[in-house]
């Protein structure tokens, strides 16, 4: 994973507007590496604790939060999304309604 990819990923995530979400694969594709969705997840997992990047706006391709349901991280991401007006129904986010385009 090169620095250019990493910088592109961070820039793209920073551009996701409040109330919208993007998928790991979408970010990877826009960053120029369409088969590297897992790399996007890796970069987010290793963000510094004081990062202001809106990591919570990145979800999986099924419209779900990737953390285990009920975990501390799941609850934090769910809370942040709901605070921005993103609705979770049965643990899923409507990509049709909230996907960043």
From TrEMBL:
Keyword DNA damage attached: yes
CDD domains per UniProt: ATase (cd06445)
GO annotation, biological process: DNA repair
Family matches, as InterPro entries: ATL_DNA_repair, MethylDNA_cys_MeTrfase_DNA-bd, MethylDNA_cys_MeTrfase_DNAb, WH-like_DNA-bd_sf
UniProt xrefs under Gene3D superfamilies: Winged helix-like DNA-binding domain superfamily/Winged helix DNA-binding domain
Keywords, comma-separated and alphabetical: DNA damage
Domain Methylated-DNA-[protein]-cysteine S-methyltransferase DNA binding: 4-86
Molecular function (Gene Ontology), one example: catalytic activity
Domain of life: Bacteria
PANTHER family: 6-O-METHYLGUANINE DNA METHYLTRANSFERASE, ALKYLTRANSFERASE-LIKE PROTEIN 1
Protein name, per record: Methylated-DNA-[protein]-cysteine S-methyltransferase DNA binding domain-containing protein
Organism in which the protein naturally occurs: Pseudoalteromonas luteoviolacea CPMOR-1
């Amino acid at each position: 994973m090169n620095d250019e990819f990493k910088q592109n990923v961070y820039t793209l995530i920073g551009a996701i507007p409040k109330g919208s979400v993007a998928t790991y694969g979408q970010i990877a594709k826009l960053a120029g590496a369409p088969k590297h969705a897992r790399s996007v997840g890796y970069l987010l997992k290793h963000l510094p604790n004081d990062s202001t990047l809106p990591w919570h706006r990145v979800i999986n391709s099924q419209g779900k939060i990737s953390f285990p349901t009920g975990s501390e991280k799941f609850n934090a991401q769910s809370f942040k999304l709901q605070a921005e007006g993103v609705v979770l129904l049965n643990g899923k986010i409507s990509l049709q309604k909230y996907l960043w385009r």
